[in-house]
Design brief:
The complex is a heterodimer of chains A (366) and B (522).
Chain A (H helix, E strand, L loop, with lengths): L1 H15 L6 H23 L1 H7 L2 H26 L7 H19 L3 H25 L4 H20 L10 H8 L1 E2 L2 E2 H19 L1 H11 L1 H6 L4 H27 L11 H11 L10 H20 L6 H26 L20 H7 L2
Antiparallel strand pairs in A: 1-2
Chain B lengths: L21 E10 L2 E11 L4 E5 L6 H8 L10 E4 L2 E4 L5 H7 L1 E4 L11 H7 L5 E2 L2 E2 L1 H14 L15 H13 L9 E5 L7 H16 L4 E4 L3 H7 L2 E6 L2 E7 L5 H9 L19 E10 L2 E9 L3 E5 L6 H8 L7 E6 L2 E3 L4 H6 L2 E4 L3 H5 L6 H6 L7 E2 L2 E2 L1 H15 L15 H13 L5 E5 L7 H16 L3 E5 L3 H7 L2 E6 L2 E7 L5 H8 L6
Parallel strand pairs in B: 3-10, 3-11, 6-9, 9-10, 15-22, 15-23, 18-21, 21-22
Antiparallel strand pairs in B: 1-2, 1-4, 4-5, 7-8, 11-12, 13-14, 13-16, 16-17, 19-20, 23-24
Helix pairs in contact in B: 3-4, 3-5, 5-6, 8-17, 14-15, 16-17
The chains are: A mainly alpha (366), B alpha/beta (522).
Chain lengths: 366, 522
Amino acid sequence: MTSSAVEASEARLRRRTRRRGSPSRVIESGGLLLLLIALLLFFGLMPASRDTFFSAANISNLLGNQSVTGIIAIAMVIPLVSGYFDLSVAAVAGIANVTVAAALSGLGTPIPVAILLGMAVALLCGVINAVLVATLKLNGFVVTLGTYTLIGGVILFFTGGQTIYQGIPLELGAWGIAKIFGIPAPFFLLIGVALIAWYILMQTPFGRRLESIGTNEKGARLVGVRVDRSIFISFLLSAAFAGVAGVLLTSRSGGADPNAAPAYLFPALTAVFLGATAIRPGKYNVWGTIIGVFLIAVAINGLALSGADTWITPVFNGLALVLAVAVSTLLGRRQKKNDPNRPSPPTAPSSAKSGDDESSQALVGV
Amino acid sequence: MAAADPARGSVLPAPGSAAGGVNFVSLSKRFGPVQALEDVTFDVARGEIHALCGGNGSGKSTLIKAVSGLQPADKGGALIVDGHEYRAEEITPVLSAAAGIRAVQQDLGLFHDMTVAENIALGSTFPTRLGRIRKGDLHRQADALLERFSIDAAPTDLLGDLGRVAQTQVAIARVLQDHLDEPRGLLILDEPTASLPIEEVEMLLTALKSYAAAGQSILYVSHRLDEILTWTDRTSILRDGRYQGTYASADLDEGALVELITGRAVASLASGRRAVPESSDVVARLKDVDAGPLRGIDLEVRAGEILGIAGLQGSGRTELLQVMFGVQRVERGAVELDGEPVVLRGPLAAMNAGVAMVPEDRVHESSFADMTIDENMSISVLSEYWRGGFFRRGRIKADSWDLADRFGVKVADVSDPLTSLSGGNQQKVILSRWIRREPRLLLLDEPTQGVDVGARSDIYAIVREVARAGTAVVVVASDLEELALVADRVVVLRQGRITAEVEADDIHAYRLTDLIYGKDIA
């Protein structure tokens, strides 16, 4: 009895005296946020941009515009936590956008019905992805790249390549530019969506099971996780969030441009990878992704205000994507160094569920 | 120490290095506190098939990794190949290959979706012109090699379509192709016959004999004692990283070899095992079950009993556990849990029926390396911590600390990643994940694989405690001494069938060794 009491108190002592993370770990998880703050200060103080950068119009423009990117990026994070890419999210947002706009403009349906229609079409796309990846077990990266392209084509067919701006009720567009306490309403939607995604991923058994799948799919199955079902649901959730982004885009732009939404793929992808370098380094996560979205947006916005040409956007996006992948992969590899037996980290696309002939290749020196 | 009867085995003098061949000189390797290899010195003569024997953890693979440069040995040792001396700590894979050391791993490292010719070329170079592969030359070269090694295959055959013997021969031909005319160096074969049926073993060994006759030195690692005695020239034995001597294989018999490998004369071992009373409830029963490699399995385990499964890899031992965990589909026969017939449609169904399984391969099948220790401990009971829409993280942590204390897991913080722990401690985390569910039936597949000696006895103490509390336990272990210590009863599996059953007082490692190799079915 006494000895176990001593052990228990020792254990409590250890619990209390545990280190609260080393300085390097703090810098690692907060680094991206610091970088964002540094960028804000830089463009806020730089002569070329300081007059306009912190103006109310510019800030609310930034917050409003990036809400769509942010929600699309979050849609991508959810299946990615279980190790599966969903590249179709931007196109799914696009088809929801077009559906809502077309229903309002052509059919004159009430706004709530139009929104429901848009969400239904998005979910239908989610079901298709889920069946292909979770049920038929096809490579998620390639399949969703396929559905991304396919849905983009369907959008073009459906719209005839024309934009839809006529007959959109003003209330819908008004919400997209409305402000609450001086902050654009869409930003609150983004925060709401992020909270829901964070809650699902971090606070529910489902979310934790998704992460166990992403870490070790076979192991997850052997602790009773219904792997296929979980992946299926993650693709449905992803499509639902993409649908929300599509609806928001309709409101922000007061209609639909068939080319608008699919262009969000790369900014969102970059943000997701940047996000995996922050908050929970080496893992895809919601808050890191949001920081990533704004980091890119602030940089591009600041550069544009400083008079940089339009080519700066793709150059910066591309650089950021490559750097993000490099940093998150290297972070993962450094963790791997501590444990040579560990399966490869879930950071680079190559490690997303595919064949693993790497070891035999290494043996013959290919 | 010297367990062998000196009349049967004698240490042979090393032939001079002038004759070629390979000398291992004083090779040592230390991993932290573990001395994996200690001052190992022996030689392989030119044109000799030299067997390397030892139990699990005896240092065989450490030795192979040391000489092939994957994990160089510690300073002080040396490797002499065909008269050239290399310092042990300086050996790299490139240096080892240049010296003529060629290893063929158990999994062969071949590409099943590629042709035989391509597989061969991948071990050397593709004949090209202006960067384009010249198919004609590729196939001519492969053809010549196949003929030379008398391999029953065409260059254009897909490797996956070949038989296992031909595949092994292709793997051997691939590593030997660059110095065909003057055999040199050392060919290391790691359990090449492990997955071969008996009748094909002879085909492969006949082929090996002919390579040796042509002057190739071969280091042959195998667990099959009869092969070693029949086909090899000399045998060296490792035990706990230490060299136990080299003997002419013709002078040994199975009894002597088993003694040398286990280091124990025939004597009973102290253990906590006991016969479980007939009155104890039968927790699990298999009736005439066919599943995967298993045929006609009849088996029962009682509450409080530790049932050991002895068998070689590929004997169906893993599948036997998987049948009871809903992973391996049952083709025929019936499975009963607590007297009720059940159909287990997956791990979740098995868990709900009170079954728990610790799989064999910790890295790929049970550890969540990216997740924390407390997450790894609680993954099996997640929903219990979810109340009112949130996790009770405080409870998860507190319970994880308690589990760490109870199972003797040495942790700095339960929020650290699982990979901050040693292998033994990781395995205790996995065990705690399952035992906390208080299973009726606990299945353990090689629970002490890759675990140091201290953690090993901890783990078995835990298992015994769990059994005493009324859980039925089934343990698969390759280490037969370990099995003899922990099991109350052992069944022997061979080629998918139960070939023997050994009761409490008759369980001895040497006896189990005989039984799993198919000798003396009593």
